[in-house]
Specification:
This protein has 377 residues and is α/β, with parallel strands linked by helices. It has two domains: 99 residues, no CATH class; 207 residues, Alpha/Beta hydrolase fold, catalytic domain (Rossmann fold, 3-Layer(aba) Sandwich). Helix content is 44%, strand content 14%. The protein has an eight-stranded mixed beta sheet with strand order 1-2-4-3-5-6-7-8, sandwiched between helices. It starts with 7 loop residues before the first helix and ends with a helix.
């Protein structure tokens, strides 16, 4: 199913805007310290305008196993990867920001078709990868706050649309919150959840914190002070920011590129983890679907108290902590909210683990869900 058909005049408009970029006056000697490096941005903008083959990427995206479900008149896009064996446990994988379902495709392949990666067929899952509302491929919900929470849409997709009586969930970033809410709301249907991030518990008496937990909270506060400006803006004044990023592809790319560099295990060299084509495909998706503004909605809705909070999750929960992710919660901190049955400190990888380290992540998912299913039989 073709989900993208960018008209030639839209493509030429993008290229024209890129060629006519009005560059900000550079500062002396800052590099990446004060934001996206101007030299690297100019290089990528030039390639995006006159070297990047969008039609090749568009064809690859249209070749993905795309489907749509309709919930109360609002379409939800998803990818479906059938497991190599009919009895495979269904898993719903949820991406985060700034991303799309593209980030999860390598992981989905490994989970659905393990024999292609040297693992036994018994490790297969049927994998569903929905596009978050307001992100590339799925339109935003028509009301604010939305009439139906995203985790409720996911449950309706898995149970009502696809007919899965029981399933597991995985996610990082925004996807971790949605997976957490699925486990919290549907402990009978959700066999377990696998997370790359956790919700904070209710306020804890500082005297009850372990040294490890206090160190984590100090690191979290330090990260927010140094790196969290984007989040504060997206929570508080997203439409002001959206006006610029929706009009300037160079500005949009700068906003995204900084995150791919800062949040990945790339040691400052973003191309060691993401090719130019990958970064520009993600940026093109946001551009052609004009979805950067609507991708900010989860931040605003959460900040304004318009989204349900995670309070207590009883289903078996696995936490995979990657060393270059934004923050790395200790097991005891996660256990204040979740029923943590597996905790893995990964040797490498960052915030975009499904793309950076799909093999490591697939192995951890397989081990966790096999242990959950074994206990249930």
């Amino acid at each position: 199913m073709d989900v993208l058909a960018v008209a030639e005049d839209e493509l030429e408009d993008l290229r024209s805007r890129l060629r006519r970029t009005r560059w900000a006056t550079s500062w002396p000697g800052t590099g990446w310290e004060a934001g996206t490096d101007g030299n690297e941005l100019r290089r990528l903008v030039a390639y995006w305008a006159d070297g990047f083959d969008w039609r090749k990427q568009e064809a690859a995206l249209n070749a993905l196993p795309s489907h749509f479900a309709d919930f109360d008149g609002v379409p939800v896009h998803y990818l479906r990867y059938d497991g190599e064996q009919p009895s495979a446990l269904p898993l719903v994988l949820t991406h985060g920001w700034p991303s799309s379902v593209l980030e999860l495709t390598e992981l989905a392949h490994r989970l659905a078709s393990p024999t292609q990666y040297g693992r036994p067929v018994e490790e297969a899952f049927t994998v569903i990868v929905p596009s978050l509302p307001g992100f590339p491929f799925s339109p935003q919900r028509p009301s604010l706050p939305p009439a139906t929470a995203t985790h409720e849409l996911w449950h309706r997709l898995m149970r009502d649309e696809l007919g899965f009586a029981r399933y597991g969930a995985h996610g990082g970033d925004l996807g971790a919150g949605i997976s957490s809410l699925l486990g919290q709301a549907y402990p009978e249907e959700v066999v377990g959840i696998h997370l790359l991030a956790v919700a904070n518990p209710a306020p804890v008496d500082p005297d009850e914190l372990s040294p490890e937990e206090q160190a984590y909270l100090d690191a979290e506060a330090e990260w927010f002070a140094e790196e969290g400006g984007y989040e504060h803006e997206q929570m508080t004044r997203p439409l002001t920011l959206s006006a610029g990023l929706s009009d300037s592809p160079a500005g949009l790319l700068a906003w995204l590129l900084e995150k791919y560099r800062a949040w990945s295990d790339c040691d400052g060299e973003v191309n060691t983890r993401f090719s130019d084509d990958y970064i520009l495909t993600q940026a093109s998706l946001y551009w052609f679907t004009n979805s950067i503004s609507t991708s900010f909605r989860p931040y605003y809705e959460f900040h304004r108290g318009l989204r349900e909070r995670v309070t207590s999750v009883s289903v078996p929960t696995a936490i995979a902590v990657f060393p270059e992710d934004l923050v790395r919660p200790p097991r005891s901190w996660a256990a204040r909210t979740y029923n943590v049955t597996r905790y893995t400190a990964m040797p490498r990888g960052g915030h975009f683990a499904a793309w950076e380290e799909p093999e490591l992540l697939a192995e951890d998912l397989v081990a966790f869900f096999r242990s959950v299913l074994k206990k249930k039989t």
